[in-house]
Amino acid sequence: MRGLIFTQFLEMVENHYSADMVDDIIDDCDLPSGGSYTAVSKYNHQELHDLSVALAKRTEQTLSDILIEYGDYVFEPLYQHYQRLFKEKHSAIQFLLEVDSDIHKEMRKLYPDATLPNIDCSMQGETLVMRYQSDRHFADLVHGLILGCARYFNEPLHIEIPEFSSGQAEFHITPKG
């Protein structure tokens, strides 16, 4: 995973909890990186998992809650960082519908060594059906990203999740109102 994901996670922890909490969760984990990240480097996704587990334990939340919180938090910074990839996206549904066909395609060009999740999207009437699959098991993070996308575009969405495991999920996303 790109270091930007890690730097934003630690920023979220500092902003939502404290700088001491950042130090505490890094100390709780035996991280190959030592918890020192740069936005442009690449790190093992297991480190994000370990940091999330440590934060969940210290805050007495579930891992699911932490990953959803982080996904919601990180959407806007990612959107701003990769803004040129998103310039034609003017709604949450449009953005989500084109994640794999446009955004992941461009990410593969920028980072040929990137391991991206499989995202398959289709419209069923007014409902966007998004299927996620990944060996990294971050379906909760994707759920948070969907929430962050809705918040960023100021478009309330109704999200149903008829199929869910950490490695694969199906999200049914419909505009509210």
Number of strands: 4
Termini gap: 36 Å
Q: SSE order, as H and E?
A: HHHHHHHEEHEE
The order of strands across the largest sheet is 1-2-4-3
Question: Are there runs of 5+ residues with pLDDT below 50, and where?
Answer: none
Which class do the helix and strand fractions yield?
Answer: alpha+beta
From the alpha carbons, calculate the radius of gyration and give it in angstroms.
16 Å
List keywords for this structure.
177 residues, four-stranded antiparallel β-sheet, 53% helix
Describe the structure in your own words:
The mean pLDDT is 91. It is globular and about 50 Å long. With 177 residues, it is an alpha+beta fold. The chain has 8 helices and 4 strands. A hairpin with a 2-residue loop joins strand 1 (118-124) and strand 2. Helix 2 (19-28) packs across helix 3 and helix 3 packs across helix 4 (63-81).
